[in-house]
Amino acid sequence: MPVFSWRPANRASAEDVESVFAAGPASKCRCQAMKVPGWIWRDTTQEQREAALLEQTACGTSGPTSGLVGYVDGEPAGWVAMEPRANYPRLWSRKQPWMRMDPELEGVWAVTCFLVGKTWRRTGLSYELAAATVEYGQQQGALVLEGYPIEPAPGKSAIWEEASVGLLQVFLEAGYEVVASPTLRRRVVRRHLGGPS
Fold it and tell me: Residue 197 domain-assigned?
């Protein structure tokens, strides 16, 4: 059985982060879709997105950081982006009301993106990363974790690029609960935490 582990990205190496992104569908976006103030493809270059990701992960520092790196048998294999919700300006600038629910709610961290390298898909790494968001959120004193996953139609599956926001079942297994269903397939989920562990 594979051995899973994870660490905050600031405690991983820049090489580990790069190897995960280079092997996945988010290699162009670099988790900037909710971070850049303008339109990601029109207003930023690939080099700018790559530089922004490395700055946000703060590898080799005391942080803060922008996500977690997942490992399978010691090899960097996956990523999940999570930060205080206020760090995602485009969550608040879009027209969809489900992206700015309960703006007065304090201590909310957003879990916005999952990435699993092709070699490691169907190993359960996404589930391990979702569970890691709960542990890390507790360590950081988050009060609420919030995600925006897709629930495929019955009998259907999501393509990997579409699943980058996470699949509903992955969040449910980590103890998140559905708080809104704004479209046929989009869900808003939350996990309430008790503060620092």
Answer: no
